[in-house]
Amino acid sequence: MTSNVQQLTPRRLLRRGEVQDRVGLSKSTLYLRISSGSFPRPVTLGSSVRWVESEVEAWISERVSERDHGNETGGTPGGTDPTSSEPPLAA
Fold it and tell me: What pLDDT sits at residue 10?
């Protein structure tokens, strides 16, 4: 007998404080990046919001990859790009 039920991958939702601890951003910088589309949007749960852990981890991995590839191609020292419109990683 075959089942049409899909196997669900467990997901963990993070509170804002947990996200801030992982990425090192202040609350205002976090929301600035969300509004600019450069950070994962939270999931609304009633009157609170949570972030999908795998999306936050993917964002962190992208930053590390950018750093690593920037070093190979002569990236800017200190991880800042004066031509970038994104705010710095730490506020």
Answer: 76
- CA terminus-to-terminus distance, the chain: 56
Between helix 27-36 and helix 16-23 the angle, nearest 10°, is 90
Phi and psi at residue 49, to the nearest 5°: -130, 150
Domains of the chain: 13-70 (1.10.238)
**Residue 60 predicted with pLDDT over 60:** yes
pTM, 2 dp: 0.68
* CA-to-CA dists, residue 28 to 33, 58, 65, 91, angstroms: 9, 21, 25, 9
Closest CA to 38 of 20, 13, 11, 56: 56
Q: Would you say residue 37 has pLDDT above 80?
A: yes
Q: How many whole angstroms separate alpha carbon 84 and alpha carbon 68?
A: 17
